């Protein structure tokens, strides 16, 4: 499913757990006409596939504080809101609860700089693991004071105007 370049067999063996994680309920939520997101099915499926890669990255680098794109973070928030499913999925994938710290990058200039560096590292690691991937959405990090004024519609526009082939 995912095009991956992981040389370590034990790490590669983890991948199917993430690829096969059932997140259809999240897609339903993100695409529902009454939901705040109102994403297309294509965008939701793509975002969920990127979120699974982000989760996989967290399993490979548990010591790193990884920063998702805004879109991946939106999927993460919807997943977390289904508390039972999120707790069970975390236990299955990581053997522990994966915490989400939503204040990274919001506590001043130094914090924002560190946050953006963590985001760049996250993007680099994703590209190393999944070299066949195209640009992951808009390259806008979640929870950064420099992006707090970015509207959802501009993010949607950035996604819909990209030339992705699926």
From TrEMBL:
Q: What is this protein called?
A: Glycine-rich domain-containing protein-like
Quote the InterPro entries the UniProt record gives. GRDP-like
Q: Which domain of life is it from?
A: Bacteria
**Residue stretches of biased makeup (Low complexity):** 144-166
Which Pfam families does the protein's record reference? Answer: GRDP-like
- Disordered as annotated region, ranges: 141-166
């Amino acid at each position: 499913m995912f095009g991956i370049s992981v040389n370590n067999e034990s790490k590669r063996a983890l991948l199917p757990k993430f690829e096969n994680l059932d997140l259809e309920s999240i897609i339903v939520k993100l695409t529902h006409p009454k939901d705040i997101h109102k994403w297309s099915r294509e965008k939701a499926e793509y975002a969920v596939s990127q979120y699974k890669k982000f989760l996989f990255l967290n399993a490979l680098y548990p010591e790193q504080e990884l920063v998702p794109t805004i879109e991946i973070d939106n999927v993460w928030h919807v997943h977390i809101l289904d508390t039972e499913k999120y707790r069970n999925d975390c236990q299955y994938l990581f053997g522990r609860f994966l915490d989400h710290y939503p204040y990274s990058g919001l506590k001043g200039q130094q914090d924002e700089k560190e946050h953006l560096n963590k985001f760049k590292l996250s993007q680099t690691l994703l590209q190393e693991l999944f070299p066949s991937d195209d640009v992951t959405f808009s390259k806008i990090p979640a929870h950064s004071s420099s992006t707090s004024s970015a509207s959802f519609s501009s993010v949607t526009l950035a996604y819909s105007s990209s030339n992705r082939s699926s």
